[in-house]
């Protein structure tokens, strides 16, 4: 048994015309599971040939058209023919297309709306950018050629070029996102992270990322490399509009400690000063609690000191949660008073010693509280009122937007422009604003205040 795949043209004009696309080999019996259905290589061949035939038919139809002159409205005749080689998702195709000239005024027309230097279809461009946003250029190229009969434009350098071009377009023109209905409140979080720079003189590039969320599940992410051409304040405004911000919407912003982010928020028109994200505070408290619980109790003096310290760290948590961070000094003083019993532990070999870790963690909290004092609020009160106290996805945003693709290996080094444009594509992918939308990659939005309070 064998088959011939035949395309038959339908409709009044082409009725009956058919063409054999491909012979499919006989000799597959189901005795072997590997003989079940088509193989990948057959499928790629089939797609490539069907594409060739469809394009050939399109070109035939196009060749008989005689457009009207766009300037005087009279008829055109064929001036000459031109070959176009265009890369598609299903292989490169060659089309021979007429160029027209008006019989009246001599105006030239092409009958196509795409520029004659166009070398690839938008779908292929988007697919290359989409995959490159999710994985290294080399891997994306390999995956495309493995699965599809794409033949041209698959070097990592070409993929990079195409991807950055799409990034540039995204930066210039906001991707068309469906306008969301008005929302009463939006939570906005921003954070920053670092990637390795490939430029001399600069080891790292700062990357600012964030997301906006509504109670109804609307969400958009944004990001930009600091000092790049991307205006992150404009991105923030765009994101807020996309999830339904109006003049009546309350926007509550959360940030980590970075001062740069605060001025960006002001630029984006967010009048209310941002709140220090509880998530960041809770993480630091967690470090201190772990260190305190690991303190040794090998002497009676240390047993007593540990009890005091564990209690005080809990109290510190309570104070910050309840908006009494300025009383944190009382905790630090009380701990300092009993810490001397651990002094002998902190000799030359200080790494990994719990008392050392505790000291370090407390120092971190102290300097964080000093830096953020203006932005700390009564988290308990907000929480009881059903308001957000932060969002654990802040850290996650930096992770999935930047680190997973751009920090994965130590060898990855980025130019400011390249990193920024790739980030624009990544954001568009996650926002579902690029092409076919292989699917949003967000973690589920399950992070309620209750969870945060528990984590705290
Ligand atoms: Zn004319």
Written account of the structure:
By secondary structure, the chain is α+β, with helices and mostly antiparallel strands. It is 43% helix and 17% strand. It has 14 helices and 10 strands. The strands form 3 sheets. A 5-stranded mixed sheet has the order 8-7-6-9-10, with helices on both faces. Strands 3-4-5 form a 3-stranded antiparallel sheet, with helices on one face. Helix 8 packs antiparallel against helix 9. The longest helix is centred in the N-terminal third of the chain and has 24 residues. The protein is elongated, with a radius of gyration of 31 Å. Bound molecules: zinc ion.
Largest beta-sheet details: 5 strands, mixed
How would you sum up the global shape? elongated
Structural class: alpha+beta
Distance between the termini: 68 Å
Q: Total helix count?
A: 14
Helix and strand pattern: EEHEEEHHHEEEHEHEHHHHHHHH
What is the mean predicted local confidence, pLDDT?
A: 85
Task: Provide the β-strand percentage band.
Answer: 15-25%
Radius of gyration: 31 Å
Bound molecules: zinc ion
In spatial order, strands of the major sheet run 8-7-6-9-10
Please provide the count of β strands: 10
State the low-pLDDT regions, or none.
Answer: 436-456
Helix percent band:
40-55%
């Amino acid at each position: 048994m064998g088959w011939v795949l035949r395309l038959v043209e339908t409709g009044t004009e082409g009725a009956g015309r058919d063409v054999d696309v491909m012979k499919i080999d006989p000799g597959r019996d189901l005795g072997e599971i590997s003989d079940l259905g088509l193989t990948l290589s057959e499928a790629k061949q089939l797609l490539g040939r069907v594409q060739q035939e469809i394009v050939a038919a399109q070109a035939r139809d196009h060749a008989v058209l005689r457009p009207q002159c766009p300037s005087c409205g009279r008829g055109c005749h064929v001036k000459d023919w031109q070959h176009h080689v265009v890369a598609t998702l299903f292989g490169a195709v060659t089309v021979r297309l007429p160029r027209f000239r008006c019989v009246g005024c001599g105006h030239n027309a092409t009958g196509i709306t795409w520029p004659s230097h166009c070398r690839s279809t938008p779908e292929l461009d988007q697919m290359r950018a989409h995959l490159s946003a999710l994985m290294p250029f080399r891997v994306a190229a390999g995956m495309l050629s493995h699965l599809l009969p794409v033949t041209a434009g698959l070097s990592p350098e070409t993929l990079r070029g195409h991807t950055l071009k799409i990034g540039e377009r995204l930066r210039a023109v906001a991707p068309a996102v469906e306008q969301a209905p008005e929302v009463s409140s939006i939570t906005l979080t921003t954070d920053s992270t670092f990637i390795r720079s490939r430029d001399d003189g600069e080891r790292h590039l700062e990357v600012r990322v964030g997301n906006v969320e509504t109670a109804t599940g609307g969400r958009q992410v944004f990001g930009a490399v600091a000092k790049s051409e991307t205006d992150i304040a404009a991105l923030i405004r765009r994101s807020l509009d996309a999830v339904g911000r109006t003049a009546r919407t309350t926007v509550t912003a959360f940030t980590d400690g970075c001062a740069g982010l605060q001025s960006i928020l002001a630029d984006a028109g967010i009048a209310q000063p941002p709140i220090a994200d509880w998530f960041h505070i809770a993480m630091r408290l967690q470090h201190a609690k772990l260190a305190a619980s690991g303190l040794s109790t090998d002497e009676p003096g240390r047993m007593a000191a540990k009890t005091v310290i564990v209690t005080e760290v809990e109290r510190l948590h309570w104070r910050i949660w309840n908006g009494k961070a300025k009383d944190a000094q009382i905790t630090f003083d009380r701990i300092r008073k009993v810490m001397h019993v651990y002094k002998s532990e902190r000799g030359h070999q200080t790494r990994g010693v719990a008392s050392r870790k505790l000291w370090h963690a407390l120092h971190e909290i102290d300097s964080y509280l000093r830096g953020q004092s203006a932005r700390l609020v009564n988290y308990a009160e907000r929480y009881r009122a059903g308001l957000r106290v932060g969002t654990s996805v802040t850290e996650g945003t930096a992770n999935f937007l930047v680190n997973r693709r751009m920090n994965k290996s130590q060898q990855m080094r980025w130019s400011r422009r390249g990193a920024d444009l790739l980030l624009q594509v990544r954001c568009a992918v996650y926002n579902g604003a690029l092409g076919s939308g292989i699917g949003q990659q967000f973690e589920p939005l399950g992070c309620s205040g209750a969870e945060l309070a528990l984590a705290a």
